[in-house]
Amino acid sequence: MSRIYEDNLKDLSSAIKYRLLKHDATVQINEILPFHDSQEIEDRNCCVAESHLQLADIYLKLHDLEAARRSLTAAKKLYEGMDWKNKVVDIEEKLSAVDRQEQDTE
User: Fold this and answer.
1) What is the average pLDDT across 6-13?
2) Which domain of life is it from (predicted)?
3) Rg value, the chain, Cα
4) I want to staple 64 with a disulfide (CB 3.0 to 4.6 A). Which of 9, 15, 57, 59 is the partner?
5) From the CB of residue 64, how many other CB atoms can be counted at a distance below 10 Å?
C-alpha cells in the first residue's frame, strides 16, 4: 500500500503512514523468541533491518533527516549484529549523506 502512494500517487505523507503500519507489523511478526535458532534470528533481524531502510527512504524523500537517521541507525545496528559488512558500509554512506544534507540546511 505504501509503495502505491509513494510511486504512483506521489503522496509521501500517506506512504509514510502505511509504511509505519507495515513496519510495526514487521517488528511484531519477527519478534525473537527463546526457541529460535541462529539462522532464524538472522532472518528475522534482516526483515526488520530492511523495513528500517524502507522507512528511511521515505523519510529522506520527506526531508525528515532526524527520522531517516534513526531508521538508518537502527538498521545499521541490526546488520552489525549479523556481521553483514557490505550492508553496514552502504548504510554508513547514507548516514554520511544525511550529515551533508543537515550541514547544507544550517
Assistant:
1) 67
2) Eukaryota
3) 15
4) 59
5) 16
